[in-house]
Amino acid sequence: MELSPNHAAFVLNGLGEVGPRTFLTIFGAVGMDFPEIFSMGGEQLLGKFAISQKAANAIVRWKECFNLEEQLRSMADFGAEFSPYFAEDYPGTLKKIANPPIGLHRAGQPLPQGKSVAIVGTRACSHYGESVAFSLARDLAERGYGIVSGLARGIDMAAHAGTLAAGGHTVAILGCGLDIVYPPDNSGLYEKIRRSGTLVSEFSFGRRADRQTFAIRNRIITGMVDAVIVVETGLTGGSMLSANYAREQRKPLLAVPGRIYENFSVGCHRLIRGGALLLSEVADVVEALEGTAAVAKQLDLPLEQHRPQRRAERPTLSEDEGKIWDSLGGGAKTVEEIAEEIGLAVLPCAQLLQGLRLRGIARRELSGAFSRST
User: Fold this and answer.
1) How far apart are CA 61 and CA 66, in angstroms?
2) Which of 8, 36, 166, 260 is least surrounded by Cβ atoms within 10 Å, i.e. has the fewest?
3) Cα dist from 127 to 131, 132, 149, 189, 368, whole Å
4) How far apart are CA 118 and CA 222, in angstroms?
5) pLDDT band at 312 (very low <50, low <70, confident <90, very high)
6) CA 105 to CA 293: how far, in whole Å?
7) Dihedrals φ, ψ of 117, to 5°?
8) CA separation (Å) from 214 to 81, 224, 237?
9) What are the distances in angstroms from CA 12 to CA 38, 138, 210, 262?
10) What are the beta bridge partners of residue 254?
C-alpha cells in the first residue's frame, strides 16, 4: 500500500515507538520522499537511518500497530483534521522547539493567527488564583490575544472560561485523543471550545490520558505561544515543567505572585526569584510581548475604556439563575445568603453560581462572597 505524505505522517504519529526525533531524522535525510520507508525492511531502515530497532520494527509492522482506516474514519466523524509537520497550517512556532510533534489533530476553528499567550497553573488552585486566571484571560482576549491552556481543572479551566466570556479565541491542548473528554466534568467547557475555539492533540483518537501524556503535551502548550503565564503552582508538577519548557524555548515567562505562608504560589515565587517576570497587571504581559511603546499606546486610557462595552441589560438566564442575578443586584453575598433569600438548597445554588462564573456573569470575591461581573 503506497501512502501519501499526509497519511504516512499520520501513521508515524500513531506509532508509539516512533517519536518526533525519529521522524525528524528520517525527514531530514529524505525530505518529502519519507513515505518510501514503508516499503523498506528492518535491516534496510537501520542501515539508512540512525533510528532504533524498536522504531524500525514498528515501521515494518505498522499495519499490526495502527488501524489507518479506522483512525481516518474517527477523525472524519469527529470533524477533525490532521496537520503534519510539513503542512502550511502547522504552527511555525512549534517547528522551533526541540522534538516538535510529527503532526497535530485539530477540531473547531482554525488556530489563531495573531499572538497567543499560555496561561497555566495548578489544578488545586485558590479562589484568588482562579479569579486572576479568569480576569487575565478575559482582558488579554479583549486585546486580541489568543489564550492557550490544557483544559485541566483549576487554572486552565478558568483561563479558557475567561477567554470565552470575552468572546475571544481559546485553544485547548489535550493530553489525550480529541474524542476523549478529560476530566469528564469539563465536558461543557470542552464542547464550548469545540464550537468557538480550537481543540488540539498530538495523540491519536482513542488514546487515554495518563501522567506521561500530560508531560508530553506541555511542550506544545508553551511551544505554540509567544509568552507563558504561571498563575499558581507548587514547586513540582506540570506548571513548573511548562515553565522550564518556556525557558528552553526562550519564551517570555511571567509569574503571578501570591500570599506568603501558603502553598498555592510557592512555585511562582521560586520562578520570580529565578528570573521570571513578576506579573501584577495586564500591562506587564503587553510589555513582554510588544515592548514599552505598545503598553503606552494600549493603556493610555483607563482599562474599562479598552474593553468592549458590556451589556447592562439582564443576560439570558434560567428561572433559578434569574433569581440569583436579582439577589446579587443588592451587592456581594455568600452562597448561603443567596440560597436562603431565593429559597433554594445550598448545593444546587452553588452549582448554578459556578455556571454563572464560567459564563462571566458572576464572580467570586477574595472574601468568598459572590457578585455580578457586569
Assistant:
1) 9
2) 260
3) 6, 9, 18, 19, 8
4) 6
5) very low
6) 38
7) -130, 135
8) 21, 16, 10
9) 10, 38, 21, 45
10) 229, 277
For residue 246 the three cell numbers come to 518556556
For residue 369, what are the contacts with CB-CB under 8 A and spacing of at least 6? 332, 333, 334
Grid cell listed for 274: 529565578
Q: Which tens digits make up the pLDDT trace of 81-111?
A: 999 999 999 999 999 998 999 999 999 999 9
CA distance 303 to 179: 39
Cα(248)–Cα(219) distance, integer angstroms: 10
Beta bridge partners of 198: 108, 171
- How far apart are the C-alpha atoms of 181 and 209, rounded to whole Å? 9
pLDDT for 313 = 60
- Phi first, then psi: what are they for 360, rounded to 5°? 80, 15
Single pTM value for the model: 0.77
Chain centre to alpha carbon of residue 189: 12
- Output the average pLDDT for the chain: 89
Q: Which amino acid is at 305?
A: Q
- Say how far apart CA 141 and CA 134 lie, in whole Å: 11
Taking the C-alpha atoms of residue 52 and residue 34, their distance in angstroms, rounded to an integer, is 17
The answer on pLDDT for 301 being more than 50 is no
Question: What value does the CA radius of gyration of the chain take, rounded to a whole number of Å?
Answer: 23
Find, among 17, 16, 8, the residue nearest to 203 by Cα: 16
